[in-house]
Write a structure and sequence with these properties.
Strand content: 35-45%
Structural class: mainly beta
Oligomer: single chain
Shape: globular
Order of helices and strands: EHEEEEEEEEE
Distance between the termini: 12 Å
Number of helices: 1
Number of domains: 1
Helix content: under 10%
Length: 127
């Protein structure tokens, strides 16, 4: 995972340093696909069309400061699009973006294709 968004960085530092209570994630984490990769301050341009929708991503218990998705994630019936990055959101009433990353290799799908991420393909670490 390339980065934690600035809001989440501040949230983590506040909790870690005892400045304020950490604001925990609301609900399941959701994986979003982007046609333009986001930054620490701006969300990526989210894919739209086909049957695309954000999917739940579940991470394994961290080990040595690293974790990864613990199951296959498949976006079915994709639109014709080139996906360049991902964003991870919580499930709050107004979802809060928590992290982002560029894909190692952009993925181009034709209308109706499936775009999948194998178990352990999406990793996150703190160092």
């Amino acid at each position: 995972m390339a980065g934690i968004v600035q809001v989440e960085e501040g949230n983590l530092l506040n909790g870690w340093l005892g400045i304020a209570a950490y604001t925990a994630v609301t609900g399941a984490m959701k994986l979003a696909l982007a046609t333009v990769t986001g930054t620490s301050t701006t969300a990526g341009t989210e894919v739209s069309g086909g049957s695309y929708g954000r999917l739940t991503i579940v991470f394994s218990t961290p080990s040595a400061g690293t974790t990864s998705n613990n199951a296959l994630i498949s976006f079915t019936n994709m639109p014709a699009v080139t996906t360049t990055g991902i964003d991870i959101y919580d499930s709050a009433g107004t979802p809060i973006r928590r992290a982002f990353a560029a894909l190692t290799t952009s993925k181009t799908t034709a209308l109706g294709d499936t775009l999948s991420f194998a178990s352990t393909a999406i990793a996150a670490s703190l160092s």
